[in-house]
Design goal:
The complex is a heterodimer. Chain A is an alpha/beta fold. Chain A is built from four helices and nine strands; from the N terminus they run E-E-E-H-E-H-E-H-E-E-E-E-H. Classes of the chains: A alpha/beta, B alpha+beta.
Chain lengths: 162, 181
């Protein structure tokens, strides 16, 4: 298992395609907690369950003002088809070119297999990693860790927006 | 290892005695095909352990991928409020292929309940908060898909085929037995 970035590290900035013709930068979400969910691949059985679960828990994440981003090395068109099929209500980012570059920055890339770890990060509103967790690749990590991390975020960090 | 965060209470749907040796909790979704298979397995597990096992069913509807799951869960709660939860639970799983409002209404009538009252309860979301409370408790406890089982509060990580569930429960019973002696 790769050594993923730990609590206290600055979250590396990135700009990735979020649809075939749009990109999203992490810095655009500054001022809100951000959940990054790296996962190995669209369509693989465990991922489907994990993303389906996050889709259902999304309203709970939103109660904390948090934004959820899924990230894998699949391309933007693949993500679009997957998101449509599973009716996902959160963005999937394509770490596609250069392949896995953002996953590597977070220590969440499996070089041998060529895809991302099943790694979770909660980034605080100032852009610092507040919590991270790397799950065994075949195990769906659930959402309990993310919710506990969001709850433990200091309240004072909230009114950073402009 | 994930642990059940919400203890079993009188608000739960329970089969078996509080003094049973071991408690099996399932988080399930009436539209989930895996839960449909697990339904038959749980029945066999219950026969295998008899009075030694207490079984609890909680809702974990994956509403986006299973459009009937929420209404089905609320239908079972409608029946529960009229002391017919387990009959409805069984009817919904046994007829999972036909899951939809007509089946829910028919099942209500088959149990001597009013289909009109059911429709009203569903339209008004009368039982939605109970279903949501189960769902959120499940999320907290590390439920990561359906079905998820907890054996005496510990998430069962293995297979939910008969042999896998039985041996996991046996293991738990034997550990408890050792502690008692």
């Amino acid at each position: 298992m790769a050594q993923i970035l730990a609590r206290g590290a600055p979250a590396p900035e990135f700009t990735l395609p979020v649809t075939p013709d749009q990109t999203l930068s992490l810095s655009e979400l500054r001022g809100k907690p951000v959940i990054l969910a790296f996962y190995p691949a669209d369509w693989s059985p465990v991922c489907g369950d994990q993303m389906a679960l996050y889709n259902e828990v999304l309203p709970e994440f939103k109660k904390h003002g948090a934004e959820l981003l899924g990230i894998s090395v699949d391309g933007a068109w693949c993500h679009a088809a997957f998101a449509k099929d599973r009716r996902l209500h959160f963005p999937l980012l394509a770490d596609f070119e250069p392949k896995g570059e953002v996953s590597r920055k977070y220590g969440a890339y499996r070089t041998k297999e060529g895809f991302s770890e099943r790694a979770l990060f909660v980034i605080d509103p100032r852009g610092t990693i507040w919590w991270s967790y790397c799950s065994p690749i075949a195990v769906n990590p659930g959402a309990d860790g993310i919710l506990e991390a969001l709850e433990s975020l200091p309240r004072a960090a909230e009114p950073v927006t402009r | 290892m994930a642990h059940l965060k919400v203890p079993v209470t009188s608000r739960d749907h329970v089969q078996g005695s509080e003094s049973a040796e071991v408690t099996l909790v399932e988080y399930g979704d009436f539209e989930c095909p895996h839960c449909g298979r697990a339904y038959g397995v749980v029945k066999q597990v219950q026969v295998h352990f008899g009075d030694r096992l207490r079984f609890v069913y909680r809702h974990f509807p994956l509403r986006e991928i299973h459009p009937q799951a929420e209404a089905a869960a609320e239908t079972s709660e409608f029946a529960a409020a009229r002391h017919r939860f387990w009959e409805m639970h069984d009817l919904l799983f046994e007829n999972q292929q036909a899951l939809g409002l007509p089946l829910m209404a028919e099942s209500a009538e088959a149990l001597g309940l009013s289909a009109a009252e059911l429709r009203e309860a569903l339209a008004g979301g009368q039982y939605a908060s109970k279903v949501q409370a189960d769902f959120l408790g499940g999320v907290r406890s590390g439920v990561n898909g359906t079905p998820t089982f907890f054996i005496d509060g510990e998430r069962h990580e293995g297979s939910y085929e008969l042999a896998g569930l039985v041996s996991a429960i046996e293991l738990r019973v034997s550990r408890v037995g050792i502690r008692r002696t």
